[in-house]
Amino acid sequence: MSDFTDKFSDMIFLGIIGLHQRLFSNEECVDLNEDIPALRRACANGAFLNCKFGLYQNGQHILPQTEWELFNIFEIPLAELIDQLPTEYSKEIKEETKLYFIEALVECIDTEKCRFAITDQGYFVMSNNIKIRKSVKNKNPLREYHSQKIIENMFEQDYVTKRLFLINEANVYIPCNKIDQTEEQKKFIDSYEDLVKLCYTKNSSNKNKIYLCKNCGMVLKQDESGNFKCITKECNKKIDEREEINISQALIMNDFVAKCIYQPGILENNIRNILDKLKKSSIVLDYDIYPGENQSTYDTWDFRVKLVNEKVYLIDAKDHENVNYIIHDRIPHMEEGSKLLYVVPNKKPKNYLKRINEHFIKRKENIICIRLNELEKVLRKDIDI
């Protein structure tokens, strides 16, 4: 998708998310005194596109730059807005999206009280677009929308390559100076520039240094008082243990990627190390990482392991405080004869594992939960038998 179409789509989708938030925050009328970040971003996108691409007609900007302009646009079919754009941009939108076919999203039901209602078409768009659907249900819609864009980008192509890069401790930050970048980082930026923009932000500190957590390797955040903070409670207990890196400018991995991809990836990397060791010892014949339904681009499991005796283990790394996240995990269809291992960090107490295993024993499923330090023993035992 072109940069123009991507920004245009964001303007529309964020406008819908913000509109929903605005209307449901005050059912009596539209209250413009309440700040809605999604609407503010949508208007900013419109202003940016007008300015960058010269979108003006008879001295007036074409795309909406204020909330009222957004509301007015949403009262008519989007085709009327898209047809006003220069041919090259309207053609891009028609070819790359389905926005041209969206009818009016809202209708004014009381002009005096500024009351609007979302149309059936508006609800249809919200329910059929996963980014919008998940965002309107979240306490922080703008952050959720950004997170969904990252997920969407990763699943478009080369999922395994992208995820392996993001769980690599060496990539929690990327130097802005190309001379200081690793060959892997240079290649990744060239191949997946859009994903890098979504996953990293330029460090805002004017200090020529950053600090890494000694526990997980992530870049620490520092507030105005000089206090440091990491992404987990465990790390924050050891916050005084940190590594200082002298660097003037760097791209820092954002919170969503750090918490939802990098942090779980620490456990996944430890599992990979064990599997590599067992492969050298002729216990593991081979394994696939992030295998799934669509040629290894859909992350159904973290690993599919084939032992030398042809037995298959499916491994999912889990690090949740609440056991219910594992007990109620949605388990796809397992291939016949395979066994699923939920591997959790060594710090998990016995009762944690007991509750999970008792649940699956009652259901007579071929699933067990083990600690990381038990994985090698479990796989070796299967070969010895």
Task: Report what the structure shows.
This protein is 46% helix and 17% strand. It is an alpha+beta fold and 385 residues long. The protein folds into 3 domains: 3-139, no CATH class; 152-259, no CATH class; 263-384, Trna Endonuclease, Chain: A, domain 1 (3-Layer(aba) Sandwich), CATH 3.40.1350. The strands form 6 sheets. A 5-stranded mixed sheet has the order 12-13-14-15-16. Strand 13 (303-307) and strand 14 form a beta hairpin. Helix 1 (3-25) runs antiparallel to helix 2 (37-53), helix 1 (3-25) packs parallel to helix 7 and helix 10 packs across helix 11.
Helix and strand arrangement:
Blueprint (H helix, E strand, L loop, with lengths): L2 H23 L11 H17 L2 E2 L2 E2 L5 H8 L3 H5 L4 H10 L9 E5 L4 E4 L1 H9 L1 H7 L4 H16 L2 H8 L6 E3 L7 H9 L1 H7 E3 L6 E5 L7 E2 L5 E2 L3 H5 L4 E5 L3 E4 L1 H26 L3 E6 L13 E5 L4 E6 L6 H4 L11 E6 L5 H13 L4 E5 L3 H10 L1
Parallel strand pairs: 14-15, 15-16
Antiparallel strand pairs: 1-2, 3-4, 5-11, 6-11, 7-10, 8-9, 12-13, 13-14
SS-derived structural category = alpha+beta
Strand % is: 15-25%
Bin the helical content: 40-55%
Q: Which strand order do you get reading across the main beta sheet? A: 12-13-14-15-16
- The low-confidence parts are none
Give the count of structural domains.
3
Count every beta strand, where a strand is a DSSP E run of 2 or more residues: 16
Count of alpha/pi helices: 16
What form results from the Cα inertia axes?
A: globular
- Overall radius of gyration: 25 Å
Q: Give the integer mean of the pLDDT values.
A: 88
In this structure, how is the largest beta sheet organized? 5 strands, mixed
- Cα distance spanning the termini: 53 Å
